[in-house]
What we know:
Helices cover 32% and strands 26% of the residues. The chain is of the alpha+beta class. Helix 1 (25-33) packs across helix 2. It starts with 9 loop residues before the first strand and ends with a helix.
Amino acid sequence: MTFPDNVPIIETEDLILRGYKQEDFEPFVTFCASERSRFAGGPLERPLAWRAFMGAIGHWVFRGYGMWVLEHRASGQVAGRVGILMNDGWDEPELGWHIYDGFEGKGLAYQASVACRDHAARHMGLDGVISYIDPANARSVRLAERLGAAFERDGEVNGQPCQVWRHPRIAEAGA
Length: 175
């Protein structure tokens, strides 16, 4: 069973973007405990990872959008998450991505982000969203640039300095 039931399924060449299953927690907690999560609020111990996992489900319930689980089509493994977040105290909705160990460098974040951004603009009224990026996260800066996002300003999220990158609107992206 996948939760919540309002999460649309989006398919790309290599991925299935879907809602959450209980078995998705173990790959999530592994990511949260790793150094890879340092740009996404981590590392987190298991109880805090559980709260974040439940919060991701709750985001869909209260906002009607959130982070999708990325299921790698060929292997069936969870490859990460991508989606739109609007946490308490944030300026506006953000397109965010987390790619799990073993799946980076394959273009999956780009593929999932394009699909998510397009869906959010066309079906959720969320066009021209931002991404909060730690300037030390060179991989995310490169991905934002590849996605056509432009540096807009320095900002702050959750008390931490960051850069705010603006994604193009669908009409600007030529879609």
